[in-house]
Hints:
Elements: E1 2-6, H1 9-19, E2 23-27, E3 33-34, E4 42-43, E5 49-50, E6 53-54, H2 56-70, E7 74-77, H3 83-99, E8 106-109, H4 117-124, H5 132-159, H6 170-186, E9 191-201, E10 204-213, E11 216-217, H7 226-237, E12 241-253, H8 261-272, H9 276-288, E13 290-292, E14 295-297, H10 312-325, H11 361-364, H12 368-384, E15 389-400, E16 406-416, E17 446-458, H13 467-477, H14 482-494, E18 498-501, E19 504-507, H15 509-521, H16 528-542, H17 548-567, H18 571-581, H19 583-586, E20 607-612, E21 615-620, E22 629-630, H20 637-644, E23 647-651, E24 658-664, E25 667-672, E26 679-682, H21 694-701, E27 705-709, E28 716-722, E29 725-730, E30 733-736, H22 741-745, H23 748-760, E31 770-777, E32 784-790, E33 793-798, E34 801-804, H24 816-828, H25 836-840, H26 848-854, H27 856-864
Parallel strand pairs: 1-2, 1-7, 7-8
Antiparallel strand pairs: 3-6, 4-5, 9-10, 9-17, 10-11, 10-16, 12-15, 12-17, 13-14, 15-16, 18-19, 20-21, 21-22, 23-24, 24-25, 25-26, 27-28, 28-29, 29-30, 31-32, 32-33, 33-34
Helix pairs in contact: 3-5, 5-16, 5-17, 6-15, 8-12, 8-13, 9-12, 9-14, 15-18
Amino acid sequence: MNVVVVESPAKAKTINKYLGGDYVVLASYGHVRDLPPKDGSVRPDEDFAMSWDVDAKSSKRLSDIAEAVKKADRLILATDPDREGEAISWHVLEVLQKKRVLKDAQVQRVVFNAITKSAVTEAMKSPRDLDMELVEAYLARRALDYLVGFTLSPVLWRKLPGSRSAGRVQSVALRLIVDRELEIERFQTQEYWTVEADMASGGESFVARMVKHQGKRLTKFDLADETSAMAAKAAVEGASFKVASVEKKPGKRAPAPPFTTSTLQQEAARKLGFSAQRTMQAAQKLYEGVDIGGETVGLITYMRTDGVQAAPEAIDEARQVIGGIYGREYVPEQARLYRTKAKNAQEAHEAIRPTSLARNPGSLRLDGDLGRLYELIWKRMIASQMESARIERTTIELESADGQTGLRATGQVILFDGYLAVYEEGRDDPDDEESGRLPLVKEGAEARVAAARAAQHFTEPPPRYSEASLVKKMEELGIGRPSTYASILTVLRDRAYVRMEKNRFIPEDKGRLVTAFLEQFFRRYVEYDFTAALEEKLDQVSAGDLDWKVLLRDFWQDFQAAVGEISELRVTNVLDALNDALGPHIFPERADGTDPRACPTCGTGRLSLKTGKFGAFIGCSNYPECRYTRPIAQPDGEEADAANGDRELGTDPETGLVVFLKSGRFGPYVQLGEGDKPKRSSLPKTWSPAAMDLEKGLRLLRLPREVGDHPEDGKPILAGIGRYGPFVQHDGTYANLENVDEVFEVGLNRAVALLAEKKAGGKGRRGEAAALKELGAHPADGAPVRVLSGRYGPYIKHGSTNANIPRGGDPQAITLEQAVALLAEREAKGGGKKPAKKAAKPKAEKPAKAAAEKKAPAKKAAAKKPAAKKPAAKKAAAS
C-alpha cells in the first residue's frame, strides 16, 4: 500500500480519485507543528535549537497518518512545490520518525504544479528525496522571524505602551507606508499653467498645446502664474500658424507575461478591488479544485510562484484556442517564451495559468470571487501568447509666421488590436497619453486658431500606496517574498498600524510611533537594503550556497547587542527622541506663529509626547495641575483650533442643554450639557471636527436611532455606531452597515434584509455564535472547548464559561492547552456567562474614554503574553 500526504482535504479527495485503490491519500491540513508563541522556542545559546509543538487537531491527523503508514510499503510526501511545502513534508516525516512507525517503508517526495490527472500521475513517476536546502531556508526564515518578533515586541511594550508587535518584514512594510505619508506632508504644491488651442486645417479641427513661447521651448513651470499664461494665450490668438511637420511613427505593444504571485495580487487589486488575502484565498480554491460536472478539477496551476514561464503543452494549447476564437492573425508566428527574473531558480516555478485553456470562463459559470479571478487568469494567459498590438503615433508641429510661438498636437491610433482584444494590463497611475486619431493635414498648410484657453494646474504629491502599488514596491526592493505579502498587509491592518481609505494605506499614529521608535533605536533592521540583503542570504541558503546556522549566528550577534543597548534606556529617553523625530507631525506650526508646543489651556506648560496604559498621547508638562490632553495627530489651521479647544455647537431644543465639541485623549467627541455623567458620543473617524455643527452633534447624541419595528416579531430595529463601526441591531443580532452616513438614512426594508443575511451567515444572535475552531475535549470533564465568534470578537467557550482571547491573539492559533489555561484563569476570577439581557439591551455608544477604561484588563493581558502565531493550517510565512 502507498500512503500519500498532501496539505488539504479537498486536494486529498481529488488526488485519491486520480491514483486509485493502491493509494491512500491523507491531508495534514497545512503545517502540523509550529513554534510555541513563548520565550525559548528558538534558543540561540543552543546553536539555535528549535522546539516544535503539535496542536490538538494536528495530533489527531498525525495519528491517522501514522496508523496508515504502519501498513504501508511507501510514504509519498506530495505537499506543495515550494519552500513551505517542503517544510510541511519535513515536519510530517520528523513526527513519523519519532513515532517509529516508518519501519521499512520507503519515503519519497513528489511535486506537481497542477492538480490534474496527468500532472499527478507524471509526478508519481519521478519521486525524489526531501530537498533539505529548502527545508533549512525555511528553518532560517522561521527562526529569524521568531527572534525578531519575540525580542523586539517586548521592548516595544515596555518602552512604548500601546504598541502591539514588530516583525522582520512587517515593520519594513510599515515604514514604506509611513515614509510615503511623510513625502506627502513635506510636499510643496507648485502652480503652473498650460495653454491649448482648438486648431483647424483643411476643414478638420484638433487640439494642440503650446510648446514654444517668445522663441523659447517651454518647460513645465515657465508659465508660473495667470499673468504669464494670459500673455501666452494672447500670443497664440494673435499669431497665424502653418503646419511645420507631420510625423507618423509606427509602433508595437507586446503583452505582459502570465501571472506570478505578485502580479496576480497587483492586477486583482487594480481590476477587481481584491485585497492580497482575498486574492490568495480564491486562488487556493481554484488550485485545489472545483466541482465541474460531478468531478473535482484543479482549474489553475500552483499560485505561489516567481516564475513567468509556461509549460510547452500549455503554450501550444493557448495558440490553438487563440486561433479558434480570434483568428489566425492573432497568433504570432513563433510562440512567446518568457524568462523569470527571480534570483532563486529553485523557487521559480511555472507561472499561474489555467490547467486547461479550453475551459472558457463563460462555460464554467463559476460564482463570485472564483469566477472573476479565474477569468482574469485565463485572459492574462491567453493574451500572453497573442500577437502584439500595432499602433501609430502621430505628432503635428505648428509654428507661427514669426517663429516665436509653437504648438504641438499628439495622437495615437490602434491599427491592429492584437492582444488588446482580450486583455490590457492595469496601471496604478495611468499617464495622459493622447489616444485619439488626428486629422490628415499636410506640411506647409495654413492652420487657423478657432479658440485658445489657459488652464491652471498644481503639482500633486505622490499617491498613497494601494495594495497593488505596495506589493509592487516591496517586490522591487526585494523585501519579503510574494507568498508572504497577503499575511503581512493583513497584520498591519489587524494591529491598527494602518487604515484603508479609498483603497489606500494611511498610517495611524500608532504605526508612525512604532516606525519612529524603530528608526531611532533599531534603524538597521528597518532599512530597505538590509532587509533585502537578508532575503538574498535566505535565497543562498535554499540554493545551498550558505549554511543556515552561519546566517543566524551573524544576525543574532549584532541584533542581541542592539537590543541590549536599548533595554538600558529609560522611557523618558525614548519619549524625548520621539518628540524630536515626530516634531513636525505632532507639533505642526500654528497659523498665528505662536509656539506649537505651548499648552492652549494653562499657557505656561509645554506639550510633549506621553504614554499611558492605553497608548501614547500629547499632554501638558504642568500635569496634574493642568490636565490638557489630545491625540497625537493635530490638523492645521482651523481644524487645529477645532480639535484643540472645546467649543459650543449650540443648544439642544429638546433639553435646553448646551452641546459641546470636545477633544480627549481618544479623539474628538460631542457632549450634551455638563455634570458628572453627561451624555457623550465620539466622532466617527471620517468626520472632521472643523465641520461639526449643532445638527451633526445632535444626530450623534441621539443614537441609537430607531429604524422601525421588525415585521416578524414587532420588536424595534436600532441603528447605531459601535466599537466595530456602524450597525443595525434587532433582538441581539447585529449587522454591519457600509458607512457612518447609512446609520442616519437606512430604512426598514434595507435593515431587515441585512439582518436576515447576517442570520443566514451564522453570526447573528448571541448564543448562536459561529464556531471558528473546535479545540477538542476539556481534560477535566470531556466537554467540548471551542473558539467562537462573538459580538465583541473571538472568545473561548467551555460549558457556561467564556474566556476572552488576549488582544492581538490569533483565534486560529489558540491550542487546547492555552484555552484550558485561559478558562481556568477566568473561572478563578469568578467568571461565568453573563446574563443575556445585559448583552442584548441596546444602549447608546459610550464615550471613547469610558470604553477604553472598561477594556483595560484585555489590554493588560495582551501585554503579558506575546502575540499568538498565524494559523497552523495556513502556509503564509511569518513576518
